[in-house]
Amino acid sequence: MANLSADPPTLKAPLAANGRDVELAGVEASPSNSQAQCHSEPSLPDDWRRKNIRANIAFQFLMSLAWGTAMGPVFDKYLFLLGSGLAKGPRLIPAMHANSLVGVAESVSGLTSLAVAIPVGYIVDRQPNKRARLARMSSSLAVISVLSGFIAVLTDELLILTVMLVSFGAFMELSSSATDAIFADSIPAGERSAYYITKSVLTTVGSACGPGISALGLAMLGDKWQPYQIKIVIVGGLLLFIPTLLPLFVFHDPVLTEPSTSEGCASADAAAPVEEGSEARTSTMASTAQEAAAPPTVAEAPRCLCFRSKHVPVLLALADFITCIGAGMTVKFFNLFFIQDHQFSPVAISLLQTAYPLVIALFMKFTERLAKPLGRPQASLSFFSANVLCLFLLGEVTWLPFLLVIFMVRGGFANSTFPIDRSILMDYTPSTQRGMWNAIQSLTSMTWSGSAFLGGLLSDSHDYRYTFVITSLIYACACVVYTPLLWLVPRKEK
After folding, report:
1. Is this model's pTM higher than 0.70 or not?
2. How confident is the model over 375-399, as pLDDT tens digits?
3. Which domains does the chain carry?
């Protein structure tokens, strides 16, 4: 189902997690056809759609690679060391212990997303012809994050580390909201799930390459949990964020005009109605804009109990919200679970986090194939429900080989559903509301951050396995909320 973030970035997770894929980083009914908008910018290159799609995929791939290197399991261990006595300067909360600091660091990013989500969403929706400019402007926040990260790692000062996390939170919120809106507008109707799956697979591969780079560096440095070794890897990962910014300067966004100013758009509004889940395709410019801007209209609206098609985005957002509560309690502590409870070395945990996203990428293809005959929500719910069982087993199994198998399979089930759920969301979201729903996803990710703090407290007072069992029960509740989509969303994507 939908999730924020690779099990750490969600890229919104940890800054973000997006959708039910909260581990790796959503939605009102469509407006009437009279709200459709037309693209009318003669200065745009003819292949602007292709360039935007490629730029977004490149940005997400490079970002996940850099994030996996600098902010992956090595950074989690660094936070653990800071909480164990290495940190300097005032503590963020009194009597902070090792796991609690890990949760607090996650909460800082979430609070930042909460603070900027609504204004960013408002700007993205109010000025759709300036989204590319916003993406470019966000690069300045990334530079601040990298510079403050260098200083924080060299000094072990918690306040400077907080500046880095706040800057990263603001950067991820602004860049992802702007680029995701452009990406969605650039994809022709009926093709969203394929593009989102391709994007998610490549992003997940980037998440695997990051820990792989960390493993190589740690192997060369001695494969010990020494602070200087950890810091060298983190600094190297921060440097990788610089080339990540280049795709942000490639995006184009066409000027959107109201239909009253264009006869072509008006004629498109008067076109024949289409079946639910599909959008009209004609050779006119107006129809092209309608595909990008308006979700499907319905001839005979399906229903489930009191829910209608207009409730699809709301149900997705609510399911994500509940999922994030559980994910935040657990996902951030998977690496520490293997490091502290099973004595994984730096190279071992990095190799595990290299293989983990590759399994997720493989499961994404399985989910895509299953969605064609079964339907998108049917495939998503089946896989995420299997994740609930696997997570419960993680809290009970003690034999390490079997534990690793369950961990890998669980990650595949939990994170492979995001592109499918994201495509459903975009089918039911007009272009003029995508910034708003990106903001809603950020508010959802705040739940992840708050529960990460709770997960740290539970891990300090009990153990990691205890939080796994609690999270599995919360995930089960999210599955119940998601269930009406089985009847509300057509099985066949058009």
Report:
1. no
2. 889 999 999 999 999 999 998 888 9
3. 46-269+279-296+307-488 (1.20.1250.20)
